[in-house]
Design brief:
Largest sheet: 5 strands, parallel
Structural class: alpha/beta
CATH architecture of the largest domain: 3-Layer(aba) Sandwich
CATH topology of the largest domain: Rossmann fold
Number of strands: 16
Shape: elongated
Distance between the termini: 49 Å
Strand order of the largest sheet: 2-1-3-4-5
């Protein structure tokens, strides 16, 4: 059973979330709070698995509240504004639901919560290891597509999803970028921007704040990532 709370100041949005949680069957709603400070006090005395968190809240914003969470339960953001989507993934949220969202979209978000004890941040089963550590499978719709890690040129964040650009193809994955940061070998795959991870073996040259990859791909280096990137790659 997934123990969860709702932090949402709008009664209509609260009602939608309560109904969806009830319909899931494997979730237990332990509390509903109109502001983050009330929830903070609750979390000091109670352990939960998941927070449904609105961003625009009275007293303290959802993003500021997110920064205070230690230890951090899983978080699914629920908001009518898309402006914070990329920033929110810096705090390892499970998903980002844009209001109004359907029950199907809600189920998709909840399905990304890892099993207890799992080391994966993404949905269990979305990426499956084979006997060859250089091979894995991604689920795309009803298909499981075999990926050779060495064929990956770069991975790009695409809102709630990511695109894997390979030597001669590209594939959409349901995992967010932060999943690949933890899944892939950090000595080989380096995050250079809030939207990109690159395979350092595919680098042709680095000029200023841009990385040139084979097949004329050019990607930006984010200021927040440049120092670590240069220290790790240029030795």
């Amino acid at each position: 059973m997934i123990r969860c709370i709702i932090i949402e100041d709008q009664p209509p949005a609260q009602r939608v979330l309560k109904k969806y949680i009830e319909d899931m069957g494997n979730m237990e709603l332990n509390g509903t709070f109109a502001d983050a400070l009330e929830a903070m006090n609750y979390l000091k005395k109670n352990n939960i698995d998941l927070i449904f968190l609105d961003i625009h809240l009275p007293k303290i914003s959802g993003i500021d509240f997110l920064k205070t969470l230690t230890p951090k339960p899983h978080v699914i953001l629920t908001t009518a504004f898309s402006d914070y989507a990329l920033e929110s993934y810096e705090y390892n949220v499970i998903d980002y639901l844009l209001k109004p969202f359907s029950f199907e979209r809600f189920v998709q978000a909840v399905s990304r919560i890892p099993d207890k004890g799992s080391n994966f941040v993404g949905t269990p089963g979305k990426v499956e290891n084979s006997s060859d550590p250089e091979i894995f499978f991604i689920k795309s719709g009803y298909e499981h597509i075999k990926i050779n890690i060495n064929d990956i040129r770069f991975i790009q964040s695409n809102s709630d999803y990511t695109e894997l650009f390979l030597t001669d193809s590209k594939h959409l994955s349901q995992e967010p970028l932060r999943f690949w940061v933890e899944y892939l070998n950090p000595k080989k795959f380096v995050r250079i921007h809030k939207s990109y991870i690159i395979n350092t073996e595919k680098i042709v040259k680095i000029v200023g704040n841009q990385v040139y990859l084979a097949n004329k791909f050019t990607l930006p280096i984010g200021r927040a990532f440049k120092e670590d990137f240069m220290n790790n790659v240029i030795k």
